[in-house]
Amino acid sequence: MGGGVVLIGAALYAVSTMSADADRIVLRHTDPETVALGAAVYEGNCAACHGANLEGQPNWRVPDEDGRLPAPPHDETGHTWHHDGDTLFRLTKYGVGALINEPDYASNMPIYDGILTDEEIIAVLSYIKSTWPDEIRSSHNEMENKQ
Fold first, then answer.
1. Which residues contact 129 (CB under 8 A, 6 or more apart)?
2. Which of 80, 93, 97 has the alpha carbon at shortest distance from 132?
3. Closest among 50, 134, 31, 51 to 88, alpha carbons compared
4. Domain locations in the chain as residue ranges
């Protein structure tokens, strides 16, 4: 009887672990089709603010006259690579306010829920990651693997 409880407990743990991993956002920066889709979606939805070369807007760390931060770069000079894929996904889909639990947070960043599909968001983030230098991608992979 005790052995059966242990086996059931182990099975439940394995299933819950698999479910958690299945829900985890995994960027596919080495998949050419995903990266190509991401590049196209980025160009049509992100480049106007974040730059065609992911360079962001000038003075992106200094609030503008409205108190809002300009669009940050997504290249290696920015902070995008300091965040895991899940955080980047939620920020893109639901907005900064939802991410930090401040619904009144003022941001120029659109909320893409209902505009882009989950696959398109993952593709954009995968495209962005594909442009980072090897050492930054490696660092990002290490961070992701610790979660």
1. 27, 29, 81, 137, 140
2. 80
3. 50
4. 27-145
27-145, CATH topology level: Cytochrome Bc1 Complex; Chain D, domain 2 (1.10.760)
Q: Do 81 and 131 meet the contact criterion of CB atoms below 8 Å apart?
A: no
Q: Give residue-wise pLDDT tens across range 98-140.
A: 999 998 998 999 999 999 999 999 999 999 999 999 999 999 9
pTM, full prediction? 0.82
Cα-Cα-Cα-Cα dihedral sign, residues 83, 87, 93, 96: negative
- Concatenating the DSSP letter of every residue in 118-133 gives HHHHHHHHHHHHHTS-
